[in-house]
Amino acid sequence: LPEGTIGMLPEAATAVLALGLNDISPALSVGMTLNETGEITDTEITPSWVHVTRTTYREAVSQLNDSSLRKLAATAHTFETRRQENGAVNIDLPEVRVRLTDSQITIRPIPNLPSRDLVRDAMLMAGEAVARFAFAHNIPLPYTTQDAPSEPLPAASTLSEFFALRKKMSPSRQSSTPGAHFGLGMGMYAQATSPLRRYLDLVVHQQLRAFLRGQP
Fold first, then answer.
1. HSE toward the beta carbon, residue 139, CA cutoff 13 A
2. All structural domains of the chain with their residue ranges
3. DSSP readout, 20-36?
4. Model confidence over 178-193: pLDDT tens digits?
5. Dihedral (C-alpha) 211, 41, 52, 141: value to the nearest 10 degrees?
6. pTM, entire model
7. Nearest Cα residue to 91 out of 163, 177, 190, 9
């Protein structure tokens, strides 16, 4: 909210579980192998403890030429290319950050940066990997799907056209069975990267952890 943050979980739980608030943080790590066309061919999911180095999106841009991040960015780009070839829809709307302090409203635009694109693509890769892992191992969880629109989508290049395009998109929905997500250009997808902010992401984590522990 503009005037502050209201957490989904109690503050005491968030302080222990959130990434980067302590020297090491509990996590669920998703590893995957992609082929040369950007398809996920193998997935490994494991409980982990991670050390988070905090940085800003602007600072991260200058680090994208580091060897490890350069390889990750190249992999993410290949994945993004495959999504576009599968018909992913790009809706380019400006993003802003709104703050309310002592009745003073501040609106700041959020710049488009390559580091933001990398984070987005990594989160989408994780979502597809989780969905495929769950489907392969018969793990019940909420998949996120989106039907194709009932009529062809118009081309868009202006702000008003992008808003009109978004209105023609079908709403995404949750399903107990996997299905395609039209807007993302993905054959199956599960939201799993924000378990402290989205309850269904938390459900996905609990289902995966139960499977990894050998529990029903």
1. 25
2. 11-212
3. TSSSSEEEEEEEEEE-T
4. 999 999 999 999 999 9
5. -30
6. 0.89
7. 163
